[in-house]
Write a structure and sequence with these properties.
By secondary structure, the protein is mainly α. It is built from 50 helices and 17 strands. It has a ten-stranded mixed beta sheet with strand order 8-7-6-9-10-14-15-11-12-13, with helices on both faces. Strands 2-1-5 form a three-stranded antiparallel beta sheet, with no helix packed on it.
């Protein structure tokens, strides 16, 4: 760079410096010689651009770019160039003239051409008839709709035309560059056909004016004397003959020279404007002096003007009554007594004014339509006629008749061509001084002008002209005059000749524009068979296109009816306009960066409205013509799509494809596909050789046979190296993949990754293949070739990593073995079987693969066989019946066979095979590898090492004993000597590594390993090699593991693999394809587990806390009696041990029983501990009053009652009770109260001598309180959902306990007469907060609420001990020894109430999606769309019951009353049972005494000091 800068400075201002005058793109500096580089670098000297000289090949200088853009010319090869070329055709070589800048402005370039093209034959020939038939109101609606359509189209066209430069082609260019070549070509052809048929319509209008209104005598087929269909046929034949002549003349004029057409354009335009002005002048004149324009009526029927000379039946001549020509038309003679037509006799002849004038009030009569059937007589409204409805109409040829059946949509189709021609300005964009300014203004102004004229004409015609005259299409009732001509001033001939010349001019313009449009389409090359029409004369005149245009125009001439041709061209123009609106709408909605129109007054809604109007008008005009036009456009579209040239114009269709793809991908992200929509989306991993050619081309053949063009297919490969150095090789590999995919007809995508090693590259492909939700769910990779050879060990290791990675990613893995033997797409199997070995269920993928293959012609004639393996305990006959039923429901036709595999003796060969694996492990240990090397080697070894011991390089030896457990079966199968010997047999293996959906027809994502069967020769050779090398290994290393010391798990796996291989080899020897599902390798490569995935690590800490509470906390707490300390602690120990074991069985039966077995775990123990806590709480009510046998019987009965209650409440009422306030505290309380109610002892009401405490017993009891207090958060949170819920439970419990503790100390001192603390209060009331927060412990009740609940529970418990317990004992016969009603009953009710309030106030806004995890029963029911949305946020969320807050609260209340009722009933019944004399209940004297049950020390009953001196007083506390 420094050298270049120096050269630039030295050459500044040199003679070779050319500045920006030389185009930089033509001066590349790269790959040139030094001298050349010096010369070319000097071109930029003095411009300080040497810094960028290497980029000049691809990036031109800004000055050069601006110069190119400023001098851009988009002048079309149109009339102007043709005229100049013709002027230079003098034989001399024309000199090159500079192109003149366009000079046309808005008026001359856009406004007047649009006016000329819009005003046409329909205005002069059909407008008055349309007003008469449709009425002023209906015609105004038609005009308004059509004009609105063109106005909206003009707005869209203005936006497109001002978004850059519009070259030749006009609307075709706009549509094709906006919607793509397919739409552009289709609409361009439609626009071309519309313009061509417009030429035919103008020519027919010209002939109609000529033969009917100017020189009727020129008719070749005479109409005089003909009536009805014959006259109509003669008129059409005249139109055909003269139309063909005029068409030939016009085509000749266009061919000879366009300059004549251009020079006559202003003349034709002047005729149009003059004719319209004469109409307005005539309307003004009718207000002053209405013209005499009589119309003769018979009754109310309009008479033909050629049928009468005087509008009367008879006239008076010289006092003599003489009959008229009209009389002779309806009577059989001239005599007055002649027989005449009945209607003629009954009705009078009247003469009315055909143009009464704008002030006559005729508008009211013409306001509404009068649609006629073909052949109906034109009748005047408001006139009464005498007519017999039953008599047939006679002499109808004397009246003016309707020539066609008219209806509203017909009028739309006939009128719409009169508003076309709005593209005239955009077609001349090359001639405009400022096209982006002139086209919008000129086009919209022209449409506004013409729309005003049309709508005013509708109103004025209806206000000036009589209705029967308006409905007279050809003026038959007004002496054959043009109806609109009779209104014109100063003469009708102004309209007649003006309309004649305007139609001639419009026809010439159509024949001039249509061939050039076809030429533009042909030169684009998008329609191959039209390319010949892109050629023309030397001056560019489209000769062949003109010939085709004239031929198509002749079709319209042959139709010959103006009313029939008009709807045809309406279809094509409407389709063109529709796509102009569509193009604008799409560009606006897509917001492409290039969409920046200068015309700002557009909106996508207006474009869509215009498009809708166009489509509606198409079907309103003629539904069958609309279908034909759309069919033509569709055929052209598909032809261009399949056969046309590929063009990339940055069109909107590609943009909408991108938007649609983005939308679809975002939809796929919303959730996993339904099982019905699941299909393999395959990532095919192929390897490349040194020349970047695919080594396994048959993989793509198999892919095509599996996919058949459906779903996603990604073919990926990896190039080893770096991106900077190997980009060329990667591009070449990509081209090779695309070429092979095209050959194999695989529709999909290619993906080439450059990586430092193939292993990482393959991993990257598996991880990042696809986009968003459109990702592969299946990986196909070929079995590694020569994987047993030492030089190919890396390939095998890479394959094993693919197996592991697909397992981790939950992706299916298809591994075809012997891929070169698979059939190509051109082969056909005429017979054979596809065998499916269904060993384990994989969700149905093993069934899906043969079904997909049999859809392809290669496998179509193969039959499907399904083998399943039966064990010793299986019923083979029933299995076969079930499998047949299963396949019937799957709609799969297959032969079913159940293979029985009995457990035989393990052969010596099995031990030998296992021995080889054990040897390899020991060999590796003797190699003295470093720790890193050992880890690297172990990681690379899997169950597939065969013959690696005989490798010469010791470092290549591989072993991984732990890996043998997962994929051992697969590798052992492939080594067996009894393999399939058919060389043409191919195998496709599939392994199930992940859970699959329950529906067998729609697997989610099974993943896999591999299994293969080598031929016999290879297997025998392998066997001998392995045997020999194992001996070498033993001699060399002097090691011989004994068979009895082998890992028996490995031996069993090897045995299973050998037996399965024997069975498969025997049964599927002749099969064309064998499909086998195999387990994948162990998911845990390091044999280490996450502690939190183990229930011991996750739940055992909570279990130990609760366990400590049960045995130590409750034991110490119940030892507060001075003489019953042994009983309190020991009986607690005994009862707890028995209750836990009994609860494990009872609760296991109700909650943890599956398949006839009770499944044990830490959770079972925790639940049993809770049941034990229930028993111990109830035991507190009868403490000291029962024998050990009574306590055990009470536990024996209470545990089942509790288990049943728990099962009913949780299974049927489904409540929220995280802390056990209902099921533990309330149940235990009222069960114990029920027992003590029955065991009532009246003598104990006044107290008992031994019902007291001591200093030491109170300390021991307080220790129990402390233990319970410390571990109570674990008690409340043990079974709460892990995570935030459990965190909240711990915090709320601690806060509640803290609040109750502080409150207990305060209340104890306040309520004591001496202001001292009472130990009973400290021992019990401090625990109240743990109970009161229990029901709402996992809910978002806030710390303040938890604190408040602790305070409230403490107050209730304290007052209960002081006031409620004595009342219960005296009045209700309930002797609650430990006050369980205060600590568990009252606080439990408070807790339940708080829980109900928390449920009622809970909402999803507060909790978020976890709301439906805490309140599981309020989750949506299965099938609810909201459940699917929630599962996207919380995977695995279970369906709930859809309960409301109020409903859940009612279930909570029901659970409270149910629990209290069942517990009280169970307690009372248990109490009655315990009263039986067989249970050794202690007498009243021995209550609260250990002596009847224990060997007590001598000093245990030392005298109790009931009174103490004042100097050293210690107040014993009692309960």
């Amino acid at each position: 760079m420094l050298n270049n800068m120096t050269d630039c400075e030295e050459g500044e201002g040199g003679p070779n410096s050319q500045g920006d005058g030389n185009p930089k793109e033509s001066s590349p500096f790269i790959n040139s010689s030094a001298a050349t580089n010096m010369d070319k670098s000097q071109q930029y000297d003095g411009n300080n651009m040497a810094l960028f000289e290497e980029e000049m090949d691809t990036s031109p200088m800004v000055s050069s770019l601006l110069s190119t853009l400023a001098n851009y010319s988009n002048l079309p090869t149109g009339s102007k160039e043709h005229e100049e070329a013709e002027n230079n055709e003098d034989g001399s070589r024309p000199s090159k003239k500079p192109v003149k800048a366009p000079q046309l402005g808005t008026l001359m370039g856009v406004y007047l051409p649009c006016i000329q093209n819009i005003f046409g034959v329909i205005l002069f020939l059909r407008m008055t008839w349309m007003v008469g038939i449709g009425g002023v109101f209906g015609s105004f609606i038609i005009v308004f709709m059509c004009c609105s359509t063109t106005m909206l189209t003009a707005i869209s066209m203005s936006a497109i035309a001002t978004n850059g430069v519009v070259p030749a082609g006009g609307s075709y260019y706009m549509i094709s560059r906006s919607l793509g070549p397919e739409f552009g070509g289709a609409v361009g052809i439609c626009f071309y056909l519309g313009t061509t048929f417009a030429g035919a319509m103008y020519i027919l209008g010209c002939i109609e004016i000529l033969l009917i209104y100017i020189v009727p005598q020129a008719a070749i087929f005479k109409i005089e004397g003909l009536e009805g269909p014959e006259a109509e046929a003669a008129l059409l034949n005249n139109m055909r003959v003269y139309g063909t002549i005029v068409l030939s003349l016009m085509a000749l004029v266009v061919f000879v020279g366009v300059k004549y057409v251009n020079k006559l354009a202003l003349v034709f335009l002047a005729c149009v404007i003059l004719s319209i002005l004469s109409v307005y002048a005539g309307v003004i004149k009718t207000a002053i002096d209405p013209p005499v324009f009589p119309v003769c009526l018979l009754g109310n029927r309009t008479l033909l003007s050629k049928g009468y000379d005087v509008c009367a039946k008879v006239i008076e001549i010289d006092n003599e009554t003489v009959t008229t020509k009209l009389w002779r038309s309806f009577c059989d003679s001239e005599n007055l007594n002649a027989t005449c037509d009945e209607y003629f006799n009954n009705n009078n002849v009247t003469e009315i004014q055909g143009i009464p004038g704008v002030t006559s009030g005729i508008l009211a009569e013409n306001l509404f339509g009068n649609y006629l059937e073909k052949g109906m007589i034109l009748e005047k409204r408001g006139l009464v006629s005498d007519m017999d409805p039953d008599s047939p109409t006679t002499s109808s040829n004397r009246y003016v008749l309707a020539d066609i059946t008219s209806f509203f949509t017909l009028l739309v189709g006939i009128y719409f061509p009169s508003v076309t021609g709005i593209m005239a300005g955009s077609n001349r964009s090359g001639d405009l001084r400022d096209a982006q300014k002139s086209i919008p203004i000129g086009t919209i102004a022209a449409i506004s002008t013409t729309s005003t004229v049309y709508m005013s004409c509708v109103v004025l015609f209806g206000a000036c002209i009589e209705g029967v005259v308006l409905r007279d299409k050809f003026g038959e009732g007004v002496s054959g005059n043009l109806v609109i001509g009779t209104l014109a001033w100063p003469s009708p001939w102004v309209i007649v000749f003006g309309s004649f010349f305007s139609t001639c001019g419009a026809g010439l313009q159509s024949l001039t524009g249509a061939p050039r449009l076809l030429q533009a389409i042909s030169r684009d090359g998008i329609i191959p068979f039209l390319r010949i029409f892109g050629h023309g004369k030397a001056n560019g005149e489209p000769t062949w296109a003109l010939l085709l245009t004239a031929s198509i125009c002749e079709i319209g001439i042959i139709i010959a009816s103006l009313d029939s041709v008009a709807p045809i061209l309406s279809m094509f123009f409407l389709m063109c306009y529709m796509f102009v609106n569509l193009a604008c709408a799409l560009q606006t909605l897509l917001r492409t960066p290039n969409w920046r129109p200068r015309f700002k007054f557009y909106h996508w809604a207006l474009s869509f409205l215009g498009m809708s109007l166009c489509l509606s008008l198409m079907f309103m005009c003629s539904w069958y013509y609309a279908i034909v036009a759309m069919g033509i456009a569709t055929c052209i579209y598909k032809y261009i799509e399949f056969c046309g040239a590929e063009k990339e114009w940055g069109d909107g269709i590609r943009g909408i494809s991108l938007s649609a793809a983005r939308f679809a991908l975002m939809r796929l992200e919303e959730g996993p596909p339904h099982t019905k929509n699941w299909r393999p989306q395959i990532l095919v991993l192929v390897s490349m050789d040194a020349e970047q050619n695919i080594e396994q081309p048959r993989l793509l053949s198999l892919t095509n046979q599996l996919k058949a063009g459906k779903g996603l297919t990604i073919v990926g490969t990896c190039v080893q190296g770096t991106f900077l150095d190997n980009y060329t090789e990667a591009h070449k590999a990509d081209q090779s993949l695309r070429k092979l995919m095209e050959q194999e007809k695989v529709k999909g995508f290619t993906q080439v990754v450059i990586s430092s090693n193939l292993r990482d590259g393959t991993s990257h492909l598996i991880q990042v293949g696809g986009l968003g939700g459109l990702k592969h769910n299946t990986v196909m990779v070929s079995w590694p070739r020569n994987w047993k050879q030492p030089e190919c060990h890396q390939e095998f290791r890479n394959f094993i990593e693919v197996v592991r990675e697909t397992t981790i990613a939950s992706i299916a893995l298809l591994v075809p073995k012997n891929i070169s033997s698979y059939p190509s797409n051109g082969e056909r199997f005429t017979e054979g079987h596809i065998d499916v070995w269904w060993v384990v269920h994989d969700g149905g993928m093993l069934m899906l693969l043969p079904f997909l293959l049999r859809q392809h012609k290669v496998w179509r004639k193969c039959k499907m066989r399904i083998f399943t393996v039966a064990q010793m305990d299986d019923n083979s006959i029933q299995m076969k019946k079930d499998l047949i039923t299963f396949l019937y429901h799957l709609r799969i036709d297959a032969v079913v066979e159940v293979v029985e595999m009995h457990d035989g003796d393990i052969s010596a060969y099995t031990y030998e095979k296992t021995l080889i694996m054990e040897q390899r492990s020991q060999i590796l240990k003797q190699m003295h590898l470093t720790k890193n090397e050992m880890e690297r080697e172990i990681q690379s070894i899997t169950d597939s090492s065969r013959g690696s011991i005989r490798r010469k390089n010791p470092s290549a030896l591989r072993s991984q004993r732990s890996a043998e457990e997962g994929a051992g079966a697969a590798e052992k199968l492939e080594e067996e000597p009894g393999a399939v010997s058919n060389p043409k047999q191919v195998q496709l293996s599939h392994s199930k590594n992940v859970s699959s959906p329950t529906s067998p027809t729609s697997p989610a994502a099974p993943a896999g390993g591999a299994v293969v069967w080598p031929d016999n020769k290879g297997a025998e050779k392998e066997k001998s090699l392995l045997t020999a090398t194992s001996e070498v290994g033993k001699d060399f290393f002097n090691m011989k593991p004994e068979w009895e010391n082998l890992n028996q798990t490995d031996v069993r796996r090897m045995h299973t693999a050998m037996r399965l291989n024997e069975v498969i080899t025997k049964k599927s020897k002749e099969a064309k394809l064998v499909l086998l599902n195999m387990p994948g390798p162990p998911k845990n490569r390091t044999n280490q587990t996450n502690p939190m995935h183990n229930a011991v690590y996750r739940d055992y800490p909570f279990f130990t806390d609760i366990h400590f509470m049960i045995f130590v906390g409750f034991g110490c707490l119940l030892a507060f009696f001075r003489f019953y300390g042994f009983g309190g602690m020991v009986f607690n120990f005994l009862t707890a041990t028995f209750a836990i074991q009994w609860a494990i069985l009872v609760q296991g039966y109700f909650q943890f029983s599956y398949d006839g077995k009770i499944h044990l775990g830490v959770i079972n123990l925790i639940n049993a501990e809770f049941a034990c806590a229930v028993v111990l709480i109830s035991y507190g009510a009868v403490l000291g009053k029962t024998s050990p046998l009574q306590i055990l019987v009470m536990a024996l009965l209470e545990v089942p009652v509790f288990a049943v209650t728990e099962w009913v409440v949780l299974k049927y009422l489904k409540i929220n009770d995280a802390g056990g306030s209902i099921l533990i505290h309330l149940f235990a309380c009222y069960f114990g109260l029920g027992v003590t109610f029955v065991l009532y002892r009246p003598s104990l009401n006044e107290g008992h001598a031994k019902e007291n405490t001591s200093y030491h017993s109170d300390i021991l009891c307080l220790m129990g309180t402390l233990f319970l207090w410390v571990f109570w958060p674990s008690f409340n949170s043990a079974l709460v959902l892990k995570g935030d819920d459990q965190h909240r439970a711990i915090l709320h419990t601690f806060i509640g306990l803290s609040a109750s503790t502080l409150t207990a100390f305060a209340l104890s001192a306040m309520l004591n007469k001496n202001g001292k603390l009472t130990m009973a209060d400290i021992q019990n009331v401090t625990l109240a907060g743990g109970v009161t927060v229990g029901a709402s412990v996992d809910m978002m009740i806030s710390p303040v609420a938890a604190y408040a609940l602790g305070v409230i529970g403490c107050i209730a418990c304290m007052l209960g001990y002081k006031y409620l317990s004595p009342i219960l004992a005296r009045r209700l016969r309930i002797q609650d020894q430990c006050g369980i009603h205060n600590l568990h009953g009252l606080t439990g009710l408070i807790s339940c109430t708080a829980g109900i309030c928390a449920i009622l106030t809970a909402s999803e806004e507060v909790y978020g999606p976890s709301f439906y995890e805490i309140f599981a029963h309020r989750a949506p029911v299965e099938g609810d769309p909201k459940l699917q949305e929630l599962r996207m946020v919380i995977p695995g969320l279970k369906a709930g019951l859809g309960r409301t807050a109020q409903k859940q609260a009612l279930f909570q209340v029901a659970a409270i009353f149910s629990t209290i009722g069942l517990s009280a009933l169970g307690g009372i019944l248990t109490g009655f049972l315990l009263r039986l004399p067989y249970f050794a209940s202690p007498s009243d004297d021995f209550c609260f005494d250990d002596k009847p049950f224990f060997e007590v020390p001598p000093d245990y009953d030392s005298p109790v000091r009931l009174k103490h001196s004042n100097t050293n007083s210690v107040e014993d506390s009692t309960v």
